[in-house]
Design brief:
mainly beta, 33-stranded mixed sheet, 10 helices, 36 strands, 14% helix, elongated
Length: 676
């Protein structure tokens, strides 16, 4: 019985094997002789449903499976655009042929023997609302923030050929266009060290663009052997050279490169990277870059910006869908004029160069631009760039070349978070003292809001005004001050034109020399009523205050007073920050009876860029006592010094002036009289 059962089982297995073999042979025959073109329409429908757009396979479909290197060939492949741009194709390829090696698959290696692409036409477009045709979303779906995926791990490609390729890119967010050609070929497999070549030529924002990539022979590429390549990019005046390395070909999430970049303005790199960078003079920098998934690390960043040396390290994190830049940058030698372009001022203003229109995040370069009549920068902040990335940057400069203004250091901590730019804190160091504080630009709305609160601490006037090492400064003493302003606008000038707030400067004590007149070209010492007596060479400044209230862009004086040993000087007027027009005057009140009792006021007029200082010959002012001069200043003067620094009220000189004002102060004003 058992023997009979075994025979029946073996017979059943035999017939099952024969049946399966017959089915397999039948399948092989079907596959070998089937008409693959009959599957073009179903394949196109399935692909179109997956991509949410039309897909067409209009040419022959050829499949060769019975080989150690099976291949497929597709002709006349077309992939359409989303509904909002149906008039063009996203992809149109005359023919794609690919073959793969089967045996390496047994050990887990994917090796493509050859890919050949004939006459590809590629069109990529992102409109102003951030809809992009490479976002494969259902019809009518709103554009969503793109969450970055892991960079692709491509198979090893032994041979890549691209013939007569056309690439067009339109990005209305970055305001860039590119039209170019792509060709890839391998001239030699053995003799040339850089046998593989990829070239692209075209136009980038109206300027010629060239891309050249040369790599190791693809025929020698192996999954466990690093693949090296060189790349060169020329875009307008930008030059970028790359020496790259892919540790595991072709896992694009792991790429290493040494990069050297140069150009006329660092901000222009935005068109290649999408990063908002400051305006600069011509630069040349180098760095080592390593990509690890969605994080790009920059090490040993160094180079020259203008004549300033910069160095540091940084990183770009792409994992959140928007670039986040972190950096620690230092400058062993910073030339101040190299960085004024960041605020919209031409760094080469003394040359015959056409001045550039620049901002913190990028500049506009019209074909012709005239010299701005304003001292305050009027270039517009590129809001879309500031909103498109986040950043946390620490900058320190150890040595400063600043021309006539002596500076010894600069420290900035910059944070950019979803359109809010904080510079907090910032500090500019003088030989003694510093100017430091916080600034915020809220660029989330169409018109940015700006707030600044900064203090000037213990600056020595003799160092600030000294023109030569061996010269004796006209004024000595400490200078302290405070600036608190808030306004709205996309440029420094626009913000100032509507700013509200306060600007105050105080000299707690110091000295004025007869050389003071040399600062203006006229004898101010005589003009304000014998500020310095003829027998004296200098006068003591007991306390000096200049305070202005800003309202809708107009700086109106609340108090201008300098208490010296011989004369009490008072003044007033206003500065229109919209037009930058000046209308200020000062007048002296001698503390002793003078033989000459009538003096002309000193007028400061013109504009911030070209101030004019002179005597107002049209009228003279009667000599008044200090009681009348101090009378209207008692209350505001006490509040003013406390605003700058509460400790100033305890300073011996300013405290004495406040006490004298309280004792003698009677409301009064200067009375103009006819000229004698």
């Amino acid at each position: 019985m058992a023997r009979a059962g075994s025979r029946r089982t073996l017979a059943a297995l035999k017939w099952i094997g024969i049946s399966l073999g017959a089915v397999l042979v039948l399948l092989i025959l079907i596959v070998a002789f089937m008409d693959w073109n009959a599957l073009r329409a179903p394949i196109a429908r399935m692909a179109g449903a997956k991509l949410h757009r039309t897909v067409q396979l209009d040419g022959p479909l050829e499949v060769h499976l019975f080989s150690l290197t099976p291949s497929i060939s597709i002709a006349d492949l077309k992939v359409g655009n989303p509904e909002w741009e149906r008039e063009r194709q996203m992809l149109d390829v005359a023919r794609i042929t690919a073959s793969i090696e089967l045996l390496p698959l047994l050990v887990g290696h994917r090796i493509v023997r050859q890919i050949e692409v004939d006459r590809p036409r590629i069109y990529l477009h992102q409109d102003a609302s951030k809809r992009a045709n490479w976002q494969f979303q259902p019809a009518g779906a709103q554009p969503q923030p793109q969450q970055p995926s892991k960079p692709p791990e491509l198979p090893v490609i032994k041979r890549l050929i691209v013939k007569e390729g056309d690439l067009e890119i339109r990005d209305e967010v970055r305001k860039l266009t590119f039209k170019g050609t792509l060709n890839a070929h391998e001239e030699s497999q053995q003799r040339e060290a850089r046998a593989f070549a990829l070239q692209g030529q075209g136009i980038l924002n109206g300027k010629k663009f060239d891309l050249n990539v040369a790599g190791d022979p693809l025929i020698n590429a192996e999954p466990d052997r690093p693949y090296t390549f060189d790349a060169a990019v020329k875009a307008a005046d930008i030059r970028v050279s790359v020496q790259g390395r892919i540790p595991r070909p072709f896992d694009m999430s792991r790429v290493q490169a040494d990069i050297v970049a140069s150009g006329q303005d660092f901000a222009d790199i935005y068109y290649l990277t999408g990063l908002a960078l400051p305006n600069t003079p011509p630069y040349k920098v180098s760095t080592s870059v390593e990509r690890d998934d969605n994080r790009i690390t920059l090490r040993h960043f160094s180079g020259l910006v203008g004549k300033s040396k910069i160095q540091g390290d940084g990183a770009i994190d792409l994992s959140s869908g928007r670039p986040t830049v972190t950096a620690n940058i230092s400058s062993p030698l910073l030339r101040l004029r190299d960085f004024v372009a960041s605020f919209g001022v031409s760094p080469e203003s003394e040359s015959s160069k056409t001045p550039d229109k620049g901002t913190l995040a990028g500049k506009q370069k019209p074909a012709t631009v005239s010299e701005s009549p304003f001292l305050l920068p009027d270039s517009v902040l590129q809001l879309e760039r500031v909103r498109g990335m986040d950043a946390a940057v620490r900058f320190r400069a150890d040595k400063i070349e600043s021309g006539k203004v002596p500076l010894t250091g600069v420290a900035l901590d910059i944070k950019l978070d979803h359109g809010i730019l904080d510079i907090a804190p910032f500090a500019i160091a003088f030989p003694q003292g510093e100017f430091s504080g916080d600034a915020r630009i809220d660029a989330r709305k169409d018109v940015p809001l700006v707030n600044v609160d900064a203090k000037l601490r213990n600056v020595h006037l003799e160092k600030l005004l000294q023109t030569r090492e061996d010269s004796q400064p006209a004024i000595e003493g400490l200078l302290v001050g405070r600036v608190r302003l808030h306004g709205a606008g996309a440029s420094v000038h626009e913000v100032a034109s509507n700013a509200d707030g306060t600007i105050t400067a105080v000299i707690p004590h110091g000295e004025i020399r007869a050389a003071f007149a040399e600062l203006t070209g006229i004898n101010i010492a005589e003009g304000v009523g014998l500020l310095i007596a003829k027998r004296d060479q200098q006068a003591e400044v007991r306390c000096g205050v200049a305070d202005f209230q800003a309202e809708r862009g107009v700086l109106q004086s609340r108090a201008v007073i300098f208490d010296t040993s011989n004369v009490l000087v008072t003044g007033g007027g206003h500065i229109n920050l919209a037009t930058e027009a000046l209308d200020l005057s000062v007048q002296g009140h001698p503390k002793k009876v003078r033989l000459v009792r009538l003096r002309s006021p000193i007028k400061l007029q013109g504009h911030l860029k070209q101030p004019k200082i002179g005597l107002d010959a049209g009228k003279t002012v009667a000599q008044t006592g200090i009681a009348a001069a101090l009378g209207a200043l008692v209350t505001p003067l006490a509040a003013i010094v406390a605003f700058v620094d509460p400790g100033l009220a305890e300073d011996a000189n300013c405290a004495a002036l406040l006490a004298e004002a309280r004792q003698k102060g009677v409301p009064g004003q200067l009375t103009p009289t006819p000229d004698h």
